Amino acid sequence: MYAEADDYKRDIRNLIRVVEEFRTFDAQMELSQLLVYLLIAASPGKKVADLLPVTGLSRSALSRNILALSGGEYRADHRAAAKPGLDLITTVTDPFDGRAQLAAPTRRGVSLAEKISKFLHLETPDNGKEAR
User: Fold this and answer.
1) Cα–Cα dist 16/75, whole Å
2) Dihedral (CA of 59, 106, 90, 73) sign
3) 83-87 contact pairs (CB < 8 A, 24+)
4) Other CB atoms within 10 Å distance of the CB of residue 115
5) Which residues contact 77 (CB under 8 A, 6 or more apart)?
6) Which residue in 109, 115, 116, 62 sits closest to 90, CA to CA?
């Protein structure tokens, strides 16, 4: 049982490293943006509409998150000034269904995914000591 406690503490410390990496990347990133990015990084080429039931976001909220994660400019809301997207994902029209959009990570998005993946597999030297 004690070994399991060490495992969960190690996992939590690794998750903290992932969260810190995202905060370093963009301290303003919203959790819904993070979720959308991770889902797309895990399943490149997924239809954007297929993310709706998984995320629980409205169609307009999902569209805003897609814009924020893409390379173009977007507005967080209608009053906000336009700001550059994070360039983590790209979308293309589905060649089999012209109404649908497919999403995939950009090179920058893949690079970030590879970096955070390494954090999830780290063995920590403190072997079960308190996180932080």
Assistant:
1) 29
2) positive
3) 86/25, 86/26, 86/29, 86/33
4) 12
5) none
6) 109
Vertex 87 angle, CA 43 and 46, to 5°: 20
Q: Which of helix, strand or coil describes residue 100?
A: strand
Q: What domains can be seen in the chain, in order of their start residue?
A: 2-75+83-120 (1.10.10.10)
Distance CA 109, CA 59 (A): 22
| Nearest partner of 31 among 2, 1, 68, judged by Cα | 68
Q: Give the chain's largest Cα–Cα span.
A: 55
Does 5 have pLDDT greater than 70?
no
Which residue from 63, 66, 59, 68 is spatially nearest to 29, judged by alpha carbons? 68
Q: Which of 55, 33, 38 is nearest to 117 (CA)?
A: 38
61 Cβ contact list (under 8 Å, min separation 6): 32
| Tens digit of each residue's pLDDT (9 = 90 or more) over 51-100 | 999 999 999 999 999 999 999 888 777 788 888 899 999 999 999 999 99
CA nearest 91: which of 102, 83, 82, 81?
Answer: 102
